[in-house]
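FORM 12-B: Structure-to-Sequence Request
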């Protein structure tokens, strides 16, 4: 009985596989995820920061010189619109509670997720896929600051250190 069942199942599987002899060709793009973010030790006051649809910045550390202008360009290299996958760069003042800030930012939809309170040193506009924004600002006092994306839910993955030397 077992042999008949195995034979019947084998014939069924074999016949199902041969119903359509034409093979469909599937094309897909393999996304190679870089699990390590290369840390650049160079100090420059001209910065290009890229963001993507996987909620990542391409830099976790930005180093600048103090007492100079900083020019930062944020590129959103993804495809999704600002309404579903918006990104910005927000440089926070020292000693700001990031979780509290992000909670306030989530409720500030009408101001591109920049809440009231003057807790930012600089920020870009909110960008959708394919967009970019360039800002220029004075570098803050020497020290380590935090930068984030303030779009709701993004800050935990999109956060880094802004080091002023």
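FORM 12-B RESPONSE
SEQUENCE OUT:
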């Amino acid at each position: 009985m077992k042999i008949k069942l195995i034979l019947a199942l084998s014939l069924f599987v074999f016949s199902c596989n041969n119903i359509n002899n034409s093979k469909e060709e599937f094309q897909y793009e393999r996304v190679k995820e870089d699990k390590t973010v290369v840390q650049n030790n160079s100090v420059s006051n001209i910065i290009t920061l890229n963001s993507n649809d996987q909620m990542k910045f391409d830099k976790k550390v930005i180093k600048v010189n103090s007492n100079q202008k900083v020019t930062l360009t944020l590129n959103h290299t993804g495809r999704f619109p600002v309404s579903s996958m918006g990104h910005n760069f927000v440089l926070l003042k020292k000693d700001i509670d990031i979780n509290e800030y992000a909670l306030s930012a989530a409720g500030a939809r009408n101001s591109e997720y920049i809440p009231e309170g003057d807790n930012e040193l600089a920020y870009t506009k909110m960008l959708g896929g394919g967009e970019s924004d360039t800002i220029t600002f004075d570098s803050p006092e020497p020290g380590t600051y935090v930068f984030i994306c303030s779009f709701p839910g993004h800050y935990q993955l999109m956060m880094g250190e802004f080091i002023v030397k």
